[in-house]
Specification:
- A 7-stranded mixed sheet has the order 3-2-1-4-5-7-6, with helices on both faces.
- By secondary structure, it is of the alpha/beta class.
- It is built from 9 helices and 7 strands.
């Protein structure tokens, strides 16, 4: 079973309890609620009328529903996720809230976004990039954004010390053991494999710039747990004139 299969299996099992699980885990890790962390991302975004918005790894479509609840005037909001069960749960929630016609759910991979070039004004991704190939994610996001469109990310951040082989191996082992006991084998495998994909703020700036983005803003949020890595919030803009790479 490859890494993507572990992710699908893991999040399929988590779908029915995702929000409560994230509340518990983020409070344990950083001392914040899931909503608090989402708001750290949303507060960075400059919304205007009739925008097309894509939320990558939308899960239970928390961000699309939050935008609707806050009366953000969006033309179209798309929630994309690789896990069908998560989207099924999201659809049930959207239906119970009135089935907003502006929210569209699509089951697909961020590594192969099924959209034409220059489709979206804003793309968001929260708590998911550590389960992805970031270069592929950025390449596809860049293509899907309109000129001057923005990409917003919030996720766990890493440390330069994690790049040392023995330290990274130790952290992977700790993550595996923790999630094996707290959850199950599939979650343990997925989270252990994700360690290699976690980037520092400086690494985020570098990979984003390499893909042609400009006006890059990257900052760390302070974890309330001294032992936990600080989360990061990233903003980057696609230039008006595309950069040839």
């Amino acid at each position: 079973m490859n890494e993507q299969d572990h992710i699908i299996e893991t999040f399929s099992e988590m779908a029915s309890r995702y929000e409560s699980l994230m509340n518990s885990e983020l409070n344990r890790l950083w001392g914040v609620s899931y909503l608090d962390f989402i708001q750290e991302l949303i507060n960075e975004i400059d919304f205007s009328s009739h925008q097309n918005i894509l939320d990558i790894a939308t899960g239970i479509a928390f961000i699309p529903q939050y935008l609707t609840d806050q009366k953000i005037d969006c033309h179209r909001v798309v929630g994309l996720d690789i896990t069908f069960e998560m989207l099924s749960n999201a659809k049930e929630q959207i239906n119970s809230n009135g089935n907003d016609p502006n929210i569209q759910l699509i089951c697909a991979s961020a590594h192969a976004l099924p959209f034409r070039k220059h489709t979206f004004d804003i793309v968001t991704c929260c708590l998911a990039t550590h389960h992805m190939n970031v270069d592929l994610l950025l390449k596809n996001t860049y293509s899907s954004l309109k000129p001057s469109g923005k990409f917003h990310v919030a996720d766990v951040g890493g440390s330069k010390r994690w790049k040392v082989g023995i330290i990274r191996a130790l952290i992977k082992a700790i993550a595996f053991i923790y999630f094996m006991f707290a959850e199950n084998f599939s979650r343990a495998q997925a989270e252990s494999e994700a360690i290699a994909n976690i980037l520092t703020v400086d690494e985020w700036r570098e990979v984003i710039q390499d893909q042609g983005f400009v006006s890059i803003k990257a900052r760390e949020l302070k974890s309330k747990r001294f032992w936990a890595p600080n989360p990061v919030v990233i903003e980057a803009k696609k230039p008006i004139m595309e950069v040839r790479r």
